[in-house]
Amino acid sequence: MKFRSVVEPPEPMRGLEVPPEVVEALGGGARPPVTITVNGHSWRSRVAIMRGRHLLGFSNANRRAADVGIGEEVEVELTLDTEPRVVVEPPDFARALDDDVAARAAYDGLTDGRKRQHVLAVESAKKPETRRRRIEQAIATLRG
């Protein structure tokens, strides 16, 4: 599905408005997982609903990659994303999860977004000791 939308400022949680008829035509429910393409740049997301509007987040990084600015009107191509969303755990984090049954069970029950937060925290550590500490913190948090 293609449509035109104005790039709105990212605060408070805006980006690209999706016409309701486009969301309905996708057939994936009110908040379908989608692949978005703007100016040849694609990313995966989900349609959000805020104050009765269907919206797509459009981060600074995605705006730069698509070479568009706030206030510009752009053509948006939206497709239903039926591929499974998989979060790849770094090997050291996976081992720590596997060594703690309760933490593994809690982690496996998280949404992909929450899993991704834990993985990004671990992967963004610059020093090995920071990485170990973040893994320990994640395990403690998951254990409850």
UniProtKB/TrEMBL annotation:
It comes from the Bacteria. This is DUF1905 domain-containing protein. It comes from Phytomonospora endophytica. Gene3D superfamilies: AF2212/PG0164-like. It holds the Pfam family OmdA.
